[in-house]
Every structure is written in structure tokens, then in C-alpha cells.
Amino acid sequence: MMYYKPTTPYNSLEIKSIYTIHYFEYHKDFSFSGEKHNFWEIMYVDRGEIAATADEKSFVLKQNQLVVYSPDEFHALHANNITAPNTIIVSFDCNSKSLNALKNQIFYINEHMRSMLAGIVREAKKAYSNNLSDPEYRKLIKAKRKPEGTDSFAAEQMITCYLQMLLIELLRSGGYNRHTRKSTVQKNEFADKFKLISNWIDDHIDRKFTINDLCAECITNKQTLENIFKTNVGMSVIEFCRKRKIDFAKKYLREDALNITQISEKLGFSSVHYFTRTFKKVENMTPSEYAKSAKAIIDHSERVSNPKIK
Predict the structure, then answer these.
(1) For labelling, which of 32, 33, 90, 183 has a CA lying 20 to 30 Å from the CA of 56?
(2) Of 93, 73, 85, 82, which is closest to residue 18 (Cα–Cα)?
């Protein structure tokens, strides 16, 4: 009989607790005077750019850049009054001294690490009942645990796994993914084609185009096109195009550049009624309700900066 001896894996870092997980879609004139707390925080710019402060240092974070704030480090945020930025913010407790190596750096986040950030937000929506765009909450409220066999099973554990993987990747590579395995060749090809097509969609967001137009642009067939989108974003081409139009609509609403009728026309909707109906289907609120909710983030930051403001 053969005898085996166990090996206990060494954990270089461990997430002790999660304080907040946010996905913010800021107004173009958002401003937050700042705060500090005794736990770690990461902020990633998903769209646009935002001016940030860390203690005495000021810098601008652009799309796909991330910064790590250490415990008791004062930090503040300001939009540039031109572009309405989107950010992912995660705050957590970790006692690993290795994280000190991430201080005072701005990281460029690659696709692999972006998928981890997206995973954190996705699993947070399953694990907690909080509205992730609500700046008011001070504690994550656990949702009812789902059983095995559902896509919400062990959602909290998935969050810590994604976060630990992200931090390890940052510590390993300084923000750059240096290795590409052969098994990911087709996935990378799909990613390249997806980036090409999604950029084309954004550039032609104000026009009406067909699946055949996209196939011609990508030089592929409809089935492969659908596979590209399912692999990269988990939705059909039509669903993605609809979502992108609404993403642009939200950006215009936050920037206060156009009214609802003008936005509808700019994005190629046949009528304001159809635009409003599509917006509500995607966001579960009307454009007017969304504009108010985006503005509420600014109102909150003003109350934090000046308690006399109600």
C-alpha cells in the first residue's frame, strides 16, 4: 500500500473581507472632495478618464488604467467636465505586505485582467442585494444563497478568487500580461476580431446597419460572428448593438450635452417612444429616471464635502 503525505499550499495573499464593490457611471462634472480609510481600495477606469489625488500626488487615470490606494491614504476624484467616466471601485482588507509594491503606480490593465474585474462586478450582483451604483451604502447586504447547479452558487467565493487573481497578476507583471499560451490562439483571434467589430459599431453608432454589414466588415459569416460575440461578451450581436446604443445614450445624458429627443435622433432611433422603450428594456428605467440617478451621485459627493447641503 502506498502512502501519501499532504502538502499545504502557501497563500501569498488572502482577502480577509470586502467593504464595497461599485460600478459608477459618473456625470461629466462629478467631483468628490476625498476620503481615507483603514483598508485597501482599487479603482479602475472602464470608460473615459478621471482626475485623481492620492495624498499629495495628482494624476489622470484614462480608460483601462487602475490605481491601488493603500490604507489611510487620502484620495479624491474629479471628472473633467467634458467626458462622463465609468469606474469600478473595490475596497477590501488584506494583510499581505506584498501589496505595498502596488503603491504609487498606475497600471495598464490587459484583457485578461479586465475579465477578472468584470467577474468581480458580475458575481457581486449575484452575491449581494445592494445597488452597485449607490454611493450611499456602507455595508454589502448578502443575498439569499443559491444552491449547487445555479450560476449564483458560491458567488462570494468567486469574488475573492477574482480579486486575489487580479492582485497576484499585478504583483507578477506590473500590469502587463507577458505570456500567451498556444491554447488561447483562437480566443485571441476572436478577441481581435471582436475589438475590430466593436470599434466599427461605435464609429457607426448613429447609423442603421445590418448583420450582413458587420459580416462584410469582419470578412466572416453570420455563425462565426455570433460565436465571436458569445465568446467575448456572452450576448448576441443584436443584443450587443442595442446595449452599445444605450451606453452612448447614458453617456450623453450624464454629459448634459443633448436632450432626450436629440439623443434619440443622434443614435438613429425611429422615434423618441422607441428609444425610451429600448432604454427601459436595457436599464430597467427611463432615460429621465437614469439622468436623475446619475445626478444623485454628484449630489451625494456634495453632501460628503459639505454636510450642510441637503
Answers:
(1) 90
(2) 93
One domain for residues 161 and 65: yes
- At residue 293's C-alpha, the angle toward residues 304 and 244, to 5°, is 125
CA distance 90 to 21: 5
pLDDT tens-digit map of 17-54: 999 999 999 988 899 989 999 999 999 999 899 999 88
**Residue 168 resides in a domain:** yes
Structural domain of residue 192, as residue ranges?
Answer: 182-295
Same domain, 206 and 116: no
Does 10 map to a domain? Answer: no
Q: Are 161 and 56 in a shared domain?
A: yes
Task: Please state the domain count of the chain.
Answer: 2
DSSP state of 100: G
Residues 138-180 have pLDDT tens digits of: 999 999 888 888 888 999 999 999 999 999 999 987 544 333 3
Question: 193 and 159 share a domain?
Answer: no
* Same-domain check for residues 112 and 235: no
Instruction: Say if 236 falls within a structural domain.
Output: yes
List the alpha helices (DSSP H) in the chain. 111-127, 155-173, 185-203, 211-218, 222-233, 237-255, 260-266, 272-283, 287-305
Cell, residue 173: 507583471
Q: How far apart are CA 299 and CA 307, in angstroms?
A: 11
- All three cell numbers of 269, joined, read 432611433
Across residues 221-230, what is the average pLDDT?
Answer: 84
